[in-house]
Amino acid sequence: VEMRIWECCELLNEVVDDSDPDLDEPQIEHLLQTAEAIRKDYPDEDWLHLTALIHDLGKVLLLPSFGGLPQWAVVGDTHPVGCPFDGSIVHYKYFKDNPDYKNPKYSNSKYGIYAHGIGLENVLMSWGHDDYMYLVAKE
């Protein structure tokens, strides 16, 4: 899909992010409030204003026309995969819908598929709306 930034922003009116603590506000309101707060605090950083505006546009992945991915695959914190989900991850309760949640290969030990001390560069991380938007913007 090819569209203008504002068209994509408007699509967020159709998005419900169950992990968002501001469920009373449409996602587009969050984008505008974030961009305005950044503009106020950093008036000379145009690139940062734009970054604030587009930071959650990857949530369109929840919409059927963009794949209709499940909540656990799109929203929330970036976290290590292949090991038990840590209770400190924002809205941890939504991981019960993730197929890996009950996979004994990942939850059989504190480190799952990893060995103690292997280094962060060897840990696989989740992919979600942030990474999607980064790839779109990069292209």
From TrEMBL:
Its cofactor is Fe cation. SUPFAM superfamilies: HD-domain/PDEase-like. Binds 2 iron ions per subunit. It is an enzyme of class 1 (oxidoreductase). Fe cation binds at H30, H55, D56, H129. One of its GO terms (biological process) is L-ascorbic acid biosynthetic process. Pathway: Polyol metabolism; myo-inositol degradation into D-glucuronate; D-glucuronate from myo-inositol: step 1/1. InterPro entries: Inositol_oxygenase. Its EC number is 1.13.99.1. Keywords: Ascorbate biosynthesis, Cytoplasm, Iron, Metal-binding, Oxidoreductase. It catalyses: myo-inositol + O2 = D-glucuronate + H2O + H(+). Signal peptide: none annotated. It comes from the Eukaryota. GO terms for molecular function: inositol oxygenase activity; iron ion binding. It is found in: Cytoplasm. GO terms for cellular component: cytoplasm. It holds the Pfam family MIOX. PANTHER family: INOSITOL OXYGENASE 2, MYOINOSITOL OXYGENASE. Belongs to the myo-inositol oxygenase family. This is Inositol oxygenase. It comes from Rosa roxburghii (burr rose).
